Amino acid sequence: MDYRTNGVCSSMIHIETEEKDGKAFITDVTFHGGCDGNLSGISKLVKGMEVEKVIGILEGTRCGRKNTSCPDQLARALKTI
């Protein structure tokens, strides 16, 4: 799925998931734009993790004075799956 971000430097997040035993797991995440090193690191860290766990960890993360961040946007995207 592709998710258009809002209020952050990245413009889109591409997410691939798969179902195992009734749970969704992340197989790939690619951020378009934003801080390449940080977002590449986040993508590697969440690969293979259960979607609900990633949401719980990243949801509500802020970037400076913004009310959101790229990790928070990833959590919001995952909530739509």
Identify the notable features of this structure and list them briefly.
36% helix, 81 residues, three-stranded antiparallel sheet, 3 helices, alpha+beta
Which geometry do the CA atoms define?
globular
| Count of helical regions | 3
Mean pLDDT, all residues? 97
Domain count, please report it.
1
Termini separation: 9 Å
What integer value in Å does the Rg equal?
Answer: 12 Å
State the oligomer: single chain
Task: Outline the biggest β-sheet.
Answer: 3 strands, antiparallel
Low-confidence residue ranges: none
Query: What would you call the structural class?
Result: alpha+beta
Q: Give the fraction of residues assigned to helices.
A: 25-40%
| Order of helical and strand elements | EEEHHH
Describe this structure in words.
The protein has 81 residues and is an alpha+beta fold. The chain has one domain (2-79). It has helices spanning 36-46, 51-58, 70-79; strands at 2-4, 10-20, 23-33. A 3-stranded antiparallel beta sheet has the order 1-2-3. Strand 1 and strand 2 form a beta hairpin. Helix 2 (51-58) runs antiparallel to helix 3. The longest helix is centred in the middle third of the chain and has 11 residues, at 36-46. The mean pLDDT is 97.
Question: What order do the helices and strands come in, and which of them pair?
Answer:
Blueprint: E1 2-4, E2 10-20, E3 23-33, H1 36-46, H2 51-58, H3 70-79
Antiparallel strand pairs: 1-2, 2-3
Helix pairs in contact: 2-3
Précis, in short:
The protein is an alpha+beta fold and 81 residues long. The chain has helices spanning 36-46, 51-58, 70-79; strands at 2-4, 10-20, 23-33.
